[in-house]
Amino acid sequence: MSKKERTSGGPGNLKVIIFNIIIAALCIVSIVTLYIGDFMKAEITLTVTKDTITKIIDSFGGSSEPQNAAIKAAEGEGENQFDMKDFAKYLDDDFSLSFSAAFVLKGDTVAKGALGQAEEAVNSVINDQVDHLVDNIAGTVDQVIEQAMKAVVHAAVDKAKDMIKEAIAKEMAENNISEEQVWARLEEYNVYPKDIDDIIDGFLNTLNDLLDGNKATSINFLKDDSETSVLYKMYRVAAEETLKSSGNEYTSEDVTAKAKEYQNTVATKFEEVLNSLSVDGEFSKETLIVSLFNGFGFGEEQKGDNAGNKTNDQNGPANAADENAGSEEGSSDKKIKNMDDVKNYIVEMLLSKVSPEVVDMVGKALSYVGYFLFFVMACWAYVLIKIIIKTIFFKNKTVGLFFPRMFGWMPHVFFVGLPMLLIKYLPVAAAKIIESQPDMQQGLDMIIEILEMVKVSVSSLTWISALCTVILMVLLIFYWPMRRAAKRARKNK
């Protein structure tokens, strides 16, 4: 017998020690991943296309109310109002936008709840969610603004064409003026359909400056009254045709004044939108994200007559900057300079709205989950401690594996497996319930449209604990005979 075998208690004990080392490693890996990993992560991915947006708008029957600030840029009054159907019409045919939001519950956050640190646990939950959400929004801002800017140009062009169409109708005493007739009149002034693409491209060239906080470049583009500005040329055509159809005498100065009036209306409305998306007078990609959160009702927006004014609360976002603040670009005293500032700003905003009752309720929920987490970790720790003690001090070095075998898999099944099962079959169940109610059929169609856009996935690092449990069961095939043999040997002595 070798020296190694003698110190280990013989070849049988050497095998046990090798298995104990493997089991101890499984215990350590399970405990660590349960504590520091994502205990539960539910990610919702929303993918919208021009087709899905159109279908949803049709399901709602459209809306005569403006739906967001970007659309208001091109909005007129009354019959010229710009609604969601118009916005969908102006989207690129290949438009596709994916946006994901995740609810992440980390093991250490759950543990804080179990240890009575409810407020700290809630803070951790909010911080984790905001981090992920802001990062995802930041990746889509450029595309959203680009589409909104295109919509602004298309709406401005359509407004000019509508005025020309109305003027031609008066001139020819006809009601049904075709698009071809409008373009025929525009071509008399050397304005062609391909020029619209030039307007859009020129406006989009100001996008980078805009997202860097320089609003002047975009606004000046809309106010450009030079001979090279196709948009201004279109408004001159609209102005001249409108004055001509009135039957009154007019001068070139009258045409210029009216064209500038039309053009300034578009530029002013666009500037108002940018101001409404500013924070404390600042506009940038970062403040735009903050404003989106405000738009969802998270911000401390001022309602009523002063809704367009900057709030006096230093911690609250400004709904619209005043004219002076709006003209000051690139201030050295910016409060929001990067994404970290955005995250901190939003976290503070959300925490200010969380009442002590909510903190207590969430804390209790986290504590229950935390107790369960600690119990599963304790099951692994119990085996680990027994392995260390028995391997060092006892002749029978085998240990029982009941607790991790019985409970090690539960976190993954309860917090991943069951939610995924529910997500898979809930829409089917909901559809059957709605189908049984004829008056809810329209609601079913809407649900189907939304489900086509949404993908939900639940994941967690608890799969490692579950996998370790499976490995443990496989090892038990070889380990259990050694444990029985050790027990018999002890009885025989």
Description:
The protein starts with a helix and ends with a helix. The longest helix is centred in the first third of the chain and has 55 residues, at 118-172. With 493 residues, the chain is mainly alpha-helical. The protein is 68% helix and 6% strand. Strands 2-1-3 form a 3-stranded antiparallel beta sheet. Helix 7 (118-172) crosses helix 14 and helix 19 (410-435) runs antiparallel to helix 20 (441-453). Residues 1-11, 62-83 and 299-332 have low confidence and may be disordered. It has helices at 3-8, 11-36, 50-60, 69-72, 84-90, 107-114, 118-172, 179-187, 194-204, 207-211, 215-223, 230-246, 252-276, 285-295, 323-327, 339-351, 356-393, 402-407, 410-435, 441-453, 462-492, and strands spanning 38-49, 96-106, 454-459.
Key traits:
single chain; 493 residues; mainly alpha; 21 helices; 3 strands; 68% helix; disordered N terminus
Question: In summary, what is this structure?
Answer:
The protein is mainly alpha-helical and 493 residues long. The two termini are 22 Å apart. Strands 2-1-3 form a three-stranded antiparallel β-sheet.
Task: Kindly report the average pLDDT value.
Answer: 76
- Helices, by number, come to 21
Kindly estimate the percentage of residues that lie in beta strands according to DSSP: 5-15%
Characterize the main sheet.
3 strands, antiparallel
| Euclidean distance between termini CA atoms | 22 Å
**Rounded to an integer, what's the Rg over CA atoms?**
33 Å
Residues in helices, as a percent range: 55-70%
In spatial order, strands of the major sheet run 2-1-3
Q: Give, in order, the helices and strands.
A: HHEHHHEHHHHHHHHHHHHHHHEH
Number of strands: 3
